[in-house]
Q: What sequence folds into this?
């Protein structure tokens, strides 16, 4: 495994760890700030993808994850 | 004379609305409610447990069923009910799914693009589209099985924003409980409400100014709303969020569709959402998961 690939995997692991740490232990919606933190981490992961299309698709996934997080924060009852 | 005086004092301090409990607390569990739809005789709630919950209007009976048949990556959002009692949710951003009353996911329809929410609109469902540019309709209405025939809903329209992140967050729509084919929908950071049946000629935009009169959560001023008949609206303003606390609804106001305040009260404990409403009464689910009925004069 090359150093570059390992670096990407490390970024992904850190991103997932951040998302999991933001997940509440009971049914509490996330806060908007948590959603934005997740988005920033996710964009960082997307930027580390190889190739333009892969980066672009990963960026879209990040935005959809952010929308889901925001609507739970704002619209979740 | 003393009795009359006491009665007059009490009347002066009593609000025009009164509240009473219809059930004990903890009627449902405390998972986040991700969808609500009102059908004939019942209100359905979808939680992220995931569970489908039916609360009957007449007996206040609660039936909870775990949702079954979800895919590994599915994350449900929104709930709509058609007049034939079909329940539809977004199983994922690009998958519309039909739920059986027992919680079984019975049908999946692939969408042509990501959708952010689903609501009931009389005989149709409303799907929220991702904002692309300013001034475009954020909702479209149609039947689940004829997606290509969906028609743009007149409003709300997407707002201009400075960045992509802001574009996504500032253009989130919420819709309340409708009456006949009319539905109230609003941008979550605004108090301007669009009441429409999908026809531009039957679309009104109403500012409910009294919402800003109390202590509200400025990010989400309008918490929930229900149309009642052809003239009235029940408006639940947000309560100011406690640090680390869950957002909830605070002051409930009965209003005309033109925004005239007909009386209000602070719902205590705070309300999670409105379950159903008629001209003279509105039932909410409290933050202690109790049914509370607010009755007008």
A:
């Amino acid at each position: 495994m090359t150093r570059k690939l390992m670096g990407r995997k490390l970024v992904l692991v850190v991103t997932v760890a951040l998302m999991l740490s933001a997940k509440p232990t009971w049914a509490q919606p996330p806060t908007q700030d948590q959603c934005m933190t997740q988005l920033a981490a996710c964009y960082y992961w997307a930027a580390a993808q190889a190739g333009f299309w892969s980066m672009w698709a990963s960026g879209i996934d990040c935005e959809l994850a952010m929308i889901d997080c925001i609507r739970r924060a704002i619209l979740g009852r | 004379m003393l009795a009359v005086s006491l009665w007059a004092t009490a009347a002066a301090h009593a609000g025009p609305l009164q509240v009473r409990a219809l059930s004990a607390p903890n009627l449902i569990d405390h998972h986040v409610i991700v969808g609500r739809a009102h059908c004939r005789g019942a209100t359905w709630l979808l939680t992220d447990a995931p569970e489908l919950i039916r609360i009957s209007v007449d007996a206040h009976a609660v039936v909870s069923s775990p949702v079954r048949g979800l895919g590994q990556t599915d994350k449900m959002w929104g709930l709509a009910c058609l007049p034939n009692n079909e329940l539809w949710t977004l199983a994922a951003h690009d998958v519309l799914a039909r739920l059986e009353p027992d919680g079984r996911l019975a049908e999946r329809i692939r969408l042509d693009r990501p959708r952010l929410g689903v609501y009931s609109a009389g005989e149709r469902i409303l799907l929220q589209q991702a904002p692309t540019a300013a001034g475009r309709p954020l909702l479209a209405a149609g039947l689940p099985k004829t997606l290509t025939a969906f028609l743009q809903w007149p409003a709300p329209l997407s707002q201009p924003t400075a960045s992509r992140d802001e574009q996504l967050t500032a253009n989130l729509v919420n819709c309340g409980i409708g009456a006949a084919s009319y539905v109230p929908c609003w941008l979550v950071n605004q108090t301007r409400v669009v009441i429409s049946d999908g026809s531009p000629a039957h679309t009104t935009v109403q500012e409910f100014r009294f919402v800003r009169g109390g202590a509200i959560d400025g990010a989400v001023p309008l918490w929930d709303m229900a149309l009642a008949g052809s003239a009235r609206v029940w408006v639940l303003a947000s309560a100011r969020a406690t640090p680390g606390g869950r957002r909830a609804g605070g002051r409930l106001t009965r209003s005309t569709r033109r925004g005239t305040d007909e009386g209000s009260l602070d719902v205590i404990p705070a309300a999670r959402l409105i379950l159903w409403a008629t001209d003279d009464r509105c039932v909410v689910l409290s933050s202690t998961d109790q049914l509370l009925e607010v009755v007008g004069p």
Remarks:
- The radius of gyration of chain A is 14 Å.
- Residues 4 and 48 of chain A are 9 Å apart (CA to CA).
- The helical segments of chain A are 3-22, 32-47, 52-75.
- Residues 3-75 of chain A form one domain.
